[in-house]
């Protein structure tokens, strides 16, 4: 497969500066988790087993599917189909809703067992990392919903669709971060 | 606003195969975790799969494969830095 090349990434350049800042924060979080674990391996391994890997699997598949839907929305608007674009974006928002539902159930399970940020170092990282990412999913859903609403009203076209590309880039970043978070916190021992 | 000149047919062709690879690797990651095998190399393998998935998201879904210069490399650079930090910590934890 070959492709034409551009100098700048798709969407508003400002969102890419924001994405880089977000990725930097998450990289620090991931490194802090890994280096703290270095001196608490038994504790981290013990409490990692209390996490629900099935929920994490579902949420990873859900986020990947939502990203695929967003890609379809981008291809639709580039083919001048604003209704198709809006439909795919709403579908992606729906997948985000499933992620939120599953994550809240997971949090609810832990909270009902008395788990909190101060329970131990593992849970402190688990709760803060996943809650921080959770907030990004919520923000991403709001962004996608606004873009979907505008797309549905025909405010984007084949030649003017920076908003769609901008929202898509942010959503893919949310997905990208989860792809690292999932194995790091739920699987790696 | 600027018009994107990125190749839409390229994105259309790549999206489904990339999505299927991402889904497959995700299920493999989960299965490895479920198997209960505990070893450093297993953790590093799982993390390498995650990094590869991240590069697929960056290169195809975020379309950076079609961007030249530093912007085309930003996700790869982020993944590399994250990989070095996390892998170092896991390797030192068993040393």
Largest interface, per-chain counts? Answer: A-B, 62 and 61 residues
Number of helices of chain A: 6
Total strands of chain A: 0
Run of helices and strands of chain B: HHH
Please write the string of helix (H) and strand (E) elements of chain A.
HHHHHH
Uncertain spans of chain B: none
Number of strands of chain B: 0
Biggest β-sheet of chain B, characterized? none
Radius of gyration of chain B, taken over Cα atoms and rounded to an integer in Å: 16 Å
Q: Report the total helices of chain B.
A: 3
Helix content of chain B: over 70%
Molecular shape of chain A: elongated
Distance between the termini of chain A: 38 Å
Helix percentage range of chain A: over 70%
- The backbone outline of chain B, from C-alpha atoms, is flat
How would you sum up this structure, described in words?
The complex is a heterodimer of chains A (189) and B (95). Chain A has 6 helices and no strands. Chain A has helices at residues 13-38, 41-48, 53-78, 82-112, 121-152, 162-187. In chain A, helix 4 (82-112) packs antiparallel against helix 5 (121-152). The longest helix of chain A is centred in the C-terminal third of the chain and has 32 residues, at 121-152. In chain A, 46% of the residues are buried. Chain B has helices at 8-35, 40-61, 74-94. The mean pLDDT of chain B is 92. At the A-B interface, helix 1, helix 3 and helix 6 of A face helix 1, helix 2 and helix 3 of B.
Key attributes of the depicted protein:
heterodimer, A: about 190 residues, mainly alpha, about 0% strand, B: about 100 residues, about 75% helix, flat
């Amino acid at each position: 497969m070959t492709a034409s090349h551009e100098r700048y990434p798709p969407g508003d350049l400002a969102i890419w500066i924001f994405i880089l800042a977000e990725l930097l924060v998450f990289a620090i979080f991931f490194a802090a988790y890994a280096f703290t674990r270095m001196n608490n391996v038994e504790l981290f391994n013990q409490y990692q087993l209390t996490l629900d890997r099935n929920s994490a699997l579902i949420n990873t598949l859900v986020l990947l599917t939502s990203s695929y839907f967003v890609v379809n929305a981008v291809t639709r608007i580039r083919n001048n189909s604003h209704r198709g674009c809006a439909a795919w974006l709403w579908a992606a928002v729906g997948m985000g809703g499933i992620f939120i539902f599953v994550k809240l159930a997971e949090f609810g399970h832990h909270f009902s067992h008395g788990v909190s940020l101060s329970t131990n170092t593992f849970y402190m990282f688990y709760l803060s990392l996943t809650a921080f990412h959770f907030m990004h999913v919520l923000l991403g859903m709001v962004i996608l919903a606004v873009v979907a609403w505008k797309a549905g009203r025909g405010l984007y076209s084949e030649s003017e669709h920076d908003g769609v590309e901008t929202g898509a880039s942010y959503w893919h970043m949310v997905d990208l971060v989860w792809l690292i978070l999932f194995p790091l916190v739920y699987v790696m021992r | 606003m600027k018009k994107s000149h990125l190749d839409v047919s390229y994105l259309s062709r790549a999206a489904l195969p990339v999505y299927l690879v991402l889904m497959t690797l995700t299920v493999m990651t989960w299965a490895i975790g479920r198997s209960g095998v505990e070893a450093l190399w297993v953790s590093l393998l799982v993390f390498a799969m995650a990094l590869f998935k991240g590069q697929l998201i960056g290169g195809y879904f975020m379309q950076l494969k079609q961007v030249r210069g530093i912007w085309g490399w930003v996700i790869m650079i982020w993944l590399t830095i994250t990989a070095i930090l996390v892998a170092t910590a896991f390797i030192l934890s068993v040393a």
